[in-house]
Amino acid sequence: MDFCFQDLMYSGSPFLEEGWEAYIDSVMETAADCQIEFSQGHAIIHDFCRPKENHEFLQNIMERCIDAAARLGIKWLTVHPSTDEGALQVRNSRTGNIAYFSRLLEKAVPLRVGLAFENMWDLHLAPRRLYAVTAEELVDLVDALGDGTGICWDVEHGSIMKQDQKAALGLIGRRLKAVHISDQTGMDNIHILPYLGCSDWNEIIEALAIAGYQGDLTYELQWFLRRMPLELVPVSLRYSINIGNHLLELFKKALQQI
């Protein structure tokens, strides 16, 4: 599973309090009882290129995410690049991200926690844009930072931005360490189950195989069950497993054809 630290950013969250280690240890115990492995995680979202009053707090919690990821055995922690909105947006965003994450890597690398940079989407902000929407910017950032870094490709983000995912993942190649698997029908209906949206899953799975991806096909389906009656949740979850197994079969076939 993917452990999402961003979901713990609410008032009264035990992760934000002193003694957070005990909470993470309880998560570890429950995961062990349920035979769950956290193969990747998602750090909090800290827009550090546009710091607000709580910048220092978020910086501390970001570092806590790394400590907690190490305790949970998470190998790759997904992080969001931040965007500078000045006249030199791309250059200053690149510089700001390199400076910020270089400091975090000093903590993460000794703990054997890698940082995987996620591709953004900015259709909802047009005509404004975000840094690291494209594979080109992600590759440039990861190559500049070096050891301990990789890329988490969100296929839904690529789909909603109408990107050529074969070309994008071909460029990313072995830098690909994690994925977010979900579908979309537009800006107002995202993070849904594959095949319920408009993404081309044959293209996506083939692109992942060509890129040499060796990780898990990890769902990110926050909106899939948001309107589902509680009594239908179990059967819906079983359906999601069937879809996931189908994608795995497609992936195996794509590997055989390379």
Summarize the structure.
With 258 residues, this protein is an alpha/beta fold. The protein is built from eight helices and six strands; from the N terminus they run E-H-E-H-E-H-E-H-E-H-H-E-H-H. The protein has a single domain, classed as TIM Barrel (Alpha-Beta Barrel).
3D structure, described in words:
The structure is a single chain. With 258 residues, the chain is an alpha/beta fold. It has a single domain, classed as Divalent-metal-dependent TIM barrel enzymes (TIM Barrel), CATH 3.20.20.150. The chain has eight helices and six strands. A six-stranded parallel sheet has the order 1-2-3-4-5-6.
User: What sequence of helices (H) and strands (E) makes up the elements?
Assistant: EHEHEHEHEHHEHH
| First-last Cα distance | 28 Å
In the CATH hierarchy, the architecture is Alpha-Beta Barrel
Strand order of the largest sheet: 1-2-3-4-5-6
Strand content: 5-15%
CATH class: Alpha Beta
CATH superfamily: Divalent-metal-dependent TIM barrel enzymes
Low-confidence stretches: none
Report the sheet with the most strands, covering strand number, pairing sense and barrel closure. 6 strands, parallel
What is the overall silhouette? globular
Number of helices: 8
> What is the CATH topology?
TIM Barrel
Tell me the radius of gyration: 18 Å
* Whole-number tally of structural domains: 1
Please count the beta strands (DSSP E, at least 2 residues each).
6
| Residue share in helix | 40-55%
Structural class: alpha/beta
